Automatic annotation (TrEMBL):
This is Methyl-accepting chemotaxis protein. It comes from Leptospira ryugenii. Residues 99-332 form the Methyl-accepting transducer domain. It comes from the Bacteria. Gene3D superfamilies: Methyl-accepting chemotaxis protein (1.10.287.950). The keyword DNA-binding does not apply.
Length: 376
């Protein structure tokens, strides 16, 4: 019996020693990161409870490290994806920023061009208004000239009518002067007859005086009559000479008047011809003035339409300029937002890089432990 007890004591003592040795080995494994094996139970002593709890702890720790390894690997993959996507997004943001800068430059150029175009349109509108005002003045002057041309044409027609009346009056006077000239010739013929008669009477009175001298006292009365007849004949001759002078002067004046009247008629015809030419020119000027007035009216209408279109374009260009300013401001804000986004993604990339480094470090630390599922 005592032997049995001693044997049992020896066997039990040996089992406890083995359990303690196993615990020491297990603790040494744990210090080396070995979590694969479990501590065997060789006795049913109180150490068996400790070994069981230690095995449970190893199982839990193995599960924790397995989870940590999976999470570290997943975190590493996610951080790499974030880095890759961050680089892609950073590249896209940089590209968009470059495009925005190019677009902003284009918008600035468009704004400058729009401003230049707007200023030119304003200048053109001012010039158009000036031209319209000048055309209005020209139109008024053309209307005034057209009215004056009409008045001048009417005056020319009245002058032509007056010239025609004068021509008729001068023609009648010319006919009368020609009649007077013919009458002067007839008077000259009559004077020649009277002069011939006076010569004959004078010759008869001379003969009568001779015969009265021959008759003596008987012929004294006849001699007195003969003397009186001779005196009358002499006076008649003198009067005839005076009449001849007057008739000669009258004929000369008639010829001069006739020549002057012919010249007047010729001049009148020339003046009438000039007035007819003037009338034609005035009528042509009136027609041209009327056409010019119509052309000016059409041009004024076109200028009015052009001015209206220019004002509309000016308003639209002003609106476009304001819109380009707003677009430029929006693009600037968008560029700043992209810059902020770029900076944010840069920070995210840096954090992701640090996270990747931490994940790699964590994965390396976890890799130092051996446990179930570590090969996965």
């Amino acid at each position: 019996m005592l032997g049995i007890i001693l044997y049992s004591s020896i066997v039990g003592s040996k089992s406890i020693n083995d359990d303690i040795e196993n615990l020491n080995v297990a603790i040494d494994w744990l210090s080396k990161g070995e979590l694969v094996d479990r501590v065997p139970q060789l006795s049913s002593s109180h150490l068996s409870v400790t070994i069981a709890k230690l095995n449970t702890f190893i199982d839990s720790l193995s599960g924790y490290f397995n989870t940590a390894k999976s999470e570290a690997h997943l975190l590493l993959e996610i951080s790499k994806q974030i880095l890759d996507r961050g680089d892609l997004i950073q590249s896209q943001v940089s590209s968009e920023k470059s495009k925005l800068e190019s677009t902003s430059t284009s918008v600035t150029e468009i704004q400058s061009s729009a401003k230049t175009t707007y200023d030119r349109i304003l200048s053109q509108t001012t010039k158009t208004n000036y031209i319209a005002d000048e055309l209005t003045l020209v139109d008024d002057e053309m209307s005034f000239l057209s009215k004056n041309a009409s008045d001048l044409n009417a005056s020319t027609l009245r002058s032509m009518e007056t010239l025609e009346s004068e021509r008729k009056a001068i023609t009648k006077a010319l006919e009368k002067v020609e009649t007077m000239n013919r009458m002067g010739d007839e008077i000259q013929s009559t004077i020649s007859i009277v002069e011939d008669i006076a010569d004959r009477v004078n010759l008869l009175s001379l003969n009568a005086s001779i015969e009265a001298a021959r008759a003596g006292n008987m012929g004294r009365g006849f001699a007195v009559v003969a003397q009186e007849v001779s005196r009358l004949a002499d006076e008649t001759a003198k009067n005839i000479e005076e009449i001849k002078k007057v008739v000669k002067l009258s004929q000369s004046a008639s010829r001069e008047s006739l020549q002057s009247m012919k010249e007047i008629v010729y001049s009148n015809e020339e003046v009438k011809s000039k007035f007819e030419e003037i009338s034609k020119v005035v009528r042509m000027f009136g027609e041209i003035s009327e056409k010019n007035a119509n052309n000016l009216a059409t041009l004024k209408h076109l200028l009015t339409d052009f001015r209206s279109d220019a004002e509309k374009i000016s308003h639209e260009m002003k609106t476009q300029t304001e819109l380009t300013k707003v677009s430029e401001s929006n693009l600037h804000s968008l560029w700043e937002n992209h810059s902020s986004i770029s900076a944010t993604f840069q920070e995210i990339s840096e954090e992701a890089l640090r996270l990747s480094q931490v994940s790699e470090s964590m994965e390396k630390i976890v890799a130092q432990f051996q446990f179930h599922g570590a090969e996965d």
